[in-house]
């Protein structure tokens, strides 16, 4: 009975599995830095304010 993949292909499959497993575990266990809060501003200032604007 032959294997469905050659040893060369199995090497890349195992490397990809290990890589994505480690990436998944790292994304789960690494906590974001709470000392630097992210400030999101939805308001965008125009480079040329309109006349009569209160800004």
TrEMBL record:
Superkingdom of origin: Eukaryota
Protein name: Small integral membrane protein 31
Lineage: Eukaryota, Metazoa, Chordata, Craniata, Vertebrata
Keywords: Membrane, Transmembrane, Transmembrane helix
TM annotation in the entry: 12-30
């Amino acid at each position: 009975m032959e294997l469905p993949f050659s040893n060369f292909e199995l090497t890349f499959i195992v490397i990809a599995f290990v890589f994505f497993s480690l990436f998944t575990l790292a994304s789960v266990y690494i906590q974001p830095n709470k000392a630097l809060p992210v400030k999101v501003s939805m308001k965008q200032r125009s480079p040329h304010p309109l006349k009569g604007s209160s800004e």
